[in-house]
Amino acid sequence: MATHLIVDGYNLIGEKCGGRLPPSWELEDHRKSLLRALSWFKKVKGLRVTVVFDGAGPGDSEESFWGVKVVYAGGKAKADGAIEAFARKAPHCAIVATSDGSVAKRCREMGAATISSRDLWRKISSLESPWKMEDEDEEEEGVFPKRGTEKRGPARRAPKRERRERRRIDKL
To answer: What count of Cα atoms within 13 Å lies in the side-chain half-sphere of residue 150?
Structure first.
């Protein structure tokens, strides 16, 4: 079964826009730009991708854009519950991208791997795309230094569950 990337849409748009959501009148353009970027990422990495947005969408509650499944949580419902429901279906294949710590924790407890929205956006923006992504800011190299040492060995070996989760995320 293919790896299923489940994305908290507004968290990822916030990372794309420098840590905060744009004004509501610009959100539709940012959603389309995000979906374009995720469709390219899906194609390059061979993933199934589902993006979950809070609130009601422009049409049905579930749509597909460029091969990316888009789900609107509807009404006043939060996307958190929908994200957890998708992760619960096949946790051994799921990677959840969110900046919400409580959602990430619950998904990890189910057995899904998690990645922060910031780390996912870095992976997406590092790929060469066939078009220039709008509003893409060039980040300076070396802004985020590597942590830890180069030393490896049994004393620093992570538990098996964490190593499995890391291998899934490294495939992104």
So the answer is: 0
- CB neighbour class for 17 (10 Å; exposed up to 12, middle 13-18, buried from 19): middle
At residue 164's C-alpha, the angle toward residues 79 and 158, to 5°, is: 110
Mean pLDDT, rounded, for 156-168: 83
Kindly state the DSSP code that residue 144 receives in the 8-state scheme. Answer: S
Break the chain into its structural domains and give their ranges: 6-89+104-130+155-170
Work out the number of other CB atoms within 10 angstroms of the CB of residue 44: 12
Burial of 110 (0-12, 13-18, 19+ CB in 10 A): middle
The model carries a pTM of: 0.73
SS3 label, residue 32: helix
Distances (CA, A) of 30 to 34, 86, 101: 6, 23, 24
Ramachandran class of 135: left when φ > 0, alpha when ψ lies in -120 to 50, beta otherwise: left
pLDDT in tens, 87-145: 999 888 899 999 888 889 999 999 999 999 899 988 888 876 555 444 444 444 444 45
- The residues near 74 (Cβ < 8 Å, ≥ 6 apart) are 55, 56, 57, 61
